[in-house]
Specification:
Length: 118
């Protein structure tokens, strides 16, 4: 027996990371599809399509939405972000230790201050 949604002319969309993130973002911010559409200056049917798995053709509209909601553009499109919070990292996450030299040393550090500020 064939799936009812597989009938001639009816296509089902697989939920995309973008659609999942968009649904979550709008719900978290309490924003309706119509409000989101107004923010990014597209029709509500376009935002609805994005939420149901459609691929955005107008990335500038998506960028407008991200800027208005102060949300990471890459995170919305892909579901992940390359940005990181440096406060969550340890030096050992970034560097391996190796002994360069050993002995007694006197170390002096100079603090840098932006020009024009004191």
């Amino acid at each position: 027996m064939k799936d009812k949604n597989r009938r001639k002319g009816v296509r089902t969309r697989k939920q995309s990371p973008f659609g999942q993130q968009l649904i979550k973002l709008l719900a978290d911010r309490g924003i309706s599809i119509r409000q989101a559409a107004a923010i990014c200056e597209v029709r509500a049917s376009v935002v609805s399509s994005w939420c149901s798995g459609g691929v955005p053709q107008d990335l500038l509209a998506v960028q407008k939405l991200c800027r208005a909601l102060r949300y990471d553009f890459e995170a919305l499109l892909t579901g992940t972000s390359m940005k990181f919070n440096p406060q969550e990292l340890e030096l050992s996450d970034l560097f391996d230790e190796e002994t360069a030299f050993s002995g007694l040393f006197k170390i002096e550090a100079t603090r840098l201050v932006r020009k024009g500020k004191k």
